[in-house]
Amino acid sequence: MRVTIARHHFYFHPSEVEQAMSGVAPEPVTGSSVDIGGVRYPVMQVGATLTRQDRRDFNAGEVERAMQALGFPLHSTTAG
């Protein structure tokens, strides 16, 4: 599926996302997160890992839309 992050087009299949994130230790979740392969990752970590772009080049909303389109469950920003 084609997704756009930071004005760049990427083609991902859900299994490719799971493979890319497997073995990656999740950072502490302080904002929006996504479940990939039974692990909850911060969306910005997922975006940086998948695109190899600097986190300053995209925003969480772009990654959230991409992950939602690929069928991954999202979790909203946590309080506190």
Helices and strands, with pairings:
Elements: E1 2-5, E2 8-11, H1 14-21, E3 33-36, E4 39-42, H2 43-51, H3 60-69, E5 74-75
Antiparallel strand pairs: 1-2, 3-4, 3-5
Structural commentary:
InterPro entries: SCO5918-like. With 80 residues, the protein is α+β, with helices and mostly antiparallel strands. It has one domain (2-24, 32-75). It contains three helices and five strands; from the N terminus they run ββαββααβ. Strand 3 (33-36) and strand 4 form a beta hairpin. It is globular, with a radius of gyration of 11 Å. The termini are far apart.
Keywords:
single chain; 80 residues; three-stranded antiparallel sheet; 34% helix; globular; SCO5918-like
- Biggest β-sheet description: 3 strands, antiparallel
What is the percent of helical residues? 25-40%
H/E series, N to C? EEHEEHHE
Structural class: alpha+beta
Ends apart, CA distance between termini? 35 Å
Instruction: Tell me the strand order in the biggest sheet.
Output: 4-3-5
Compose a concise summary of this entry.
The chain is of the alpha+beta class. It is built from 3 helices and 5 strands; from the N terminus they run ββαββααβ. 34% of the residues lie in helices and 22% in strands.
